[in-house]
Amino acid sequence: MEEEVNEKVVSIVISGVKLSASILARALAKVIADDKARSAAKAQAKANTPKTGKMTLDELNRQNAGAVSIEINDGNIKSFDRVARKYGIDYAVKKDGSCDPPKYFVFFKARDQDTMTMAFKEFVKENEKRQNRTSFKERLNAYKEKAKSLYQDMTKVKYKDRSRAL
Hints:
Elements: H1 2-7, H2 21-48, H3 57-61, E1 67-72, H4 77-87, E2 91-96, E3 103-109, H5 113-132, H6 136-153
Antiparallel strand pairs: 1-3, 2-3
Helix pairs in contact: 4-5
């Protein structure tokens, strides 16, 4: 990043007969003012753009849409985050640590309810698929046992013929 700052070059074109220090100072002041105006416009545009995706509950409530919540007992919220980003859902997650297995409440905007239903169906289907899947180590151990049983069934037959013809 430092290299980018150091390599930044500003070119100013001044048309005139005589170049003086005051003309150069005015040109530089104009460039700086223009740069500040551009950065202020970017900041204004960013401030006006509503936040999307995962956010706090206060930010979700500021979007003037009624928040609806769903309770999740599973602690695998990270995989839900990927599904929610896929569907473009604005949501907030709150953890209720008062009970022994913590519960998670997912708040989302009421207008996203149909989209949220689709996202939760996909999330549940994905979790079921993940739970039914056997791990790589388990499959590898099963194949090792199968290979051992096949190898034990085979008997090695070695014939050693040591007779010498004299």
